[in-house]
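User: Quick sanity check before I run a bigger batch. Here is a single chain. Can you write out its predicted 3D structure?
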Amino acid sequence: MRATTAKKDQTFTTPSGATRLVTCIECITPTGKSIPPLFITKGTVFPKSILPGYEQLVEGFKFYLARTDNAFATQATGHEWLRKVFLPYSKPPDIEGRMPWRILILDGHASHKGQRFFELCYFNKVVPIWLPPHSSHLLQPLDLVTFGVLKQSFHDKLYRHMSQGVLKIRFQLFFKIYEEARAPAITERNCRHGFRPAGIVPLNIAVVLKAAAPSNNDDNNSLPRNPLQLVQPEHASKSGREIALLLQQFHRDGKTWELGKLAQEVGQRLDAAEARDHTRQATLNRVETQLEVYRQPAPDTRRAAPSPNSQFLSYRAAARARGVLRSSPPSSPITCEADTIGGVHYDVPLF
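Assistant: Done. Predicted structure follows.
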């Protein structure tokens, strides 16, 4: 982390190894709303010293805390986030005495999967939809709009504190900075605009296909009127650069004879290089053929990872086949209202 003060000759740089990892889980809706974030820290206990005081936070800001061995989300963390954060804060009003279904769009992280996760979704009328692999840059609303604004806002707030002489960002200050950065980033407008380019709300498949299509600028079939423009001296080797500069100079000066001689020399060198490549390729093919005699084919043990969407549908079908109704959850209660500690600001811990 590096921040520059008003004085150009004064900078602050954090040494390597002096940072701590914190994972944050955010969830937004296409109607412009968001639920409290979840912060995941490294450790086994929550010291009270990491929590900010109520006077440090704006009234109404709420967040949750969880801890893991490496500050990354796990299946247990994902299950508790669904149970204590998503379900209570996204609960829709009943329609004719019945709770409507909800849709939860997720990426393919392992923390959003598992039998317990499927069970909790099924008995609370939540339909989880997992995005295809390597598609979050096209389909993830948070990645498309919200996180970019949040990242820039967080950096601006952080640099402002560091430029004022705050060289060590403790957890209490981190929560305050994140709160200040989150307010202008996760807004109703940004939440709504995140779903539009993803083609989710309103539903528009053409938007995604257009974004995934290759750009017209990538078409290299059209050649310039002057073939010498194809030569890029700054990207060529030393000898190639010299040849390219000579070609361009001769072309400008109209030296046809010198240009022809140089082109002949270039052609001879290219023919010699091509002949050497053919010889090396023939040698390589001969060695590969000899190795095939001693090489035993290894059994192909690779298996495609099952889609979590199909796994959830299989669980739902199996539950219906067993006669398990959504209105009759297991013996231990599944849903849980959000726990509060001392007021309106934070709930700690998740588990």
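The beta strands are 2-4, 11-13, 23-25, 38-42, 63-68, 102-106, 126-130, 346-347.

User: Great, the batch can go ahead then.
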